[in-house]
Structure formats: C-alpha cells, structure tokens
Design goal:
- The structure is a single chain.
- By secondary structure, the chain is α+β, with helices and mostly antiparallel strands.
- Among the domains are: 78 residues, Thrombin, subunit H, CATH 2.40.10; 41 residues, no CATH class.
- 19% of the residues lie in helices and 25% in strands.
- The protein has two helices and eight strands.
- Strand 3 and strand 4 form a beta hairpin.
- One of its GO terms (cellular component) is proton-transporting ATP synthase complex.
- Keywords: ATP synthesis, ATP-binding, CF(1), Ion transport, Membrane, Nucleotide-binding, Transport.
- Its main location: membrane.
C-alpha cells in the first residue's frame, strides 16, 4: 500500500515535470536555463547551425526591451551557454532567441570622444546613437595589436600631468582640492 501511494505521488510529479518541459519544436532557438547572468539557449530543428563563440543573440522581453546575450561556449550538440549583457530579471524558459550572426560591436572614430556607452555600444549620455556597423564599428573581441604597431617611446602622459595639477591645487588650498 505504501508503494502504491509512492507510485501515485511519483507519477503526479513526473506528469508535472513533463508538462513543464518544452517539446523539441517549441524549444527551437529558445531559452533552456537561466542561472543569474548565465543563459543556456537550445537550438533544435533540422539543419540548425550553432552560433560562433562571441556571437551575439537577442531576446525581446515581454516589456519590449531587448536583451543581448554573448555566446561563451558550446555545450552539447545543440546548446550554447551565453552571458547576458543586462539583467535577466523577468526572463524565463521558453523565450525565443534570435541570432545576429555577428559579435557585439562598439562605435569607433572621433565621434566617440567624450561619449558614454554601455557594454553593448549604445549611447547612455542622452546624445544621438552612433552607428556600430561597417567602418563605423568594431567587435569588442579582436586580436591584440602586433608588437611592431605598438609605441615604445618614453613620454609624459596626460594622466601624470592631471595628477600633478590635482596635487598642486590641493597644496594651494590647504590639502583640499
């Protein structure tokens, strides 16, 4: 009688778990697991190719905000482990994921001087967005410069000059800058 009760309880649990699991078709390019900022994404279906390491994936949340993920590793034949570039609050299993086919890009050029950007290259200083594609952007992961391309000359850098300026102002005002 005890075994019959256990079997009934266990069967109910299994049914509950089975109902929560996603079918293969439902899970095509969907969030499979979330642990803090780490999000596992499953790519099921015929002829589905996993995104490359460092490629970005995008999720549109229910409130309309865009969540960017960066692929960090391939785990298994059809799953990638990603790092979220923003909070995963409100994210749940089953959200649809779209691959961009590109890594996260940052704007480059003279227009970025004095600007503030978030981790995915979006302006956060209230000024207009800058383009991040083509010649106007570069991936956040790239090869280190060759040794021949680095400067080896000795020079006083701006950081030292600014520290001297702060020191002199502090001395002139009784130690307060």
């Amino acid at each position: 009688q005890l075994n019959a009760g256990y079997a009934k309880y266990n069967g109910g649990l299994q049914a509950m778990v089975t109902n929560k699991l996603l079918t293969a078709e439902e899970a095509a390019r969907k969030v499979a697991q979330i642990i803090g900022p780490v999000v596992d994404v499953v790519f099921n279906g015929k002829d589905v190719e996993l995104p490359k390491i460092y490629d970005s994936l995008e999720i549109t949340k229910k409130d309309g905000t865009l969540l960017v993920l960066e692929v960090q590793s391939h785990i298994g034949e059809n799953t990638v482990r990603t790092i979220s570039m923003d909070s995963t609050d409100g994210l749940s299993r089953g959200y649809e994921v779209v691959g961009t086919g590109n890594p996260i890009q940052m704007p480059i050029g003279a227009d970025v001087y004095g600007r503030l950007f978030n981790v995915i290259g979006d302006a956060i200083d209230g000024l207009p967005e800058l383009p991040k594609t083509g010649e106007n952007g570069t991936p956040i992961h790239r090869q280190a410069p060759r040794f021949e391309d680095l400067s080896t000359s000795s020079e006083v850098l701006f950081t030292v000059l600014i520290q001297e300026l702060i020191n002199n102002i502090a001395k002139g005002h009784g130690g307060l800058s």
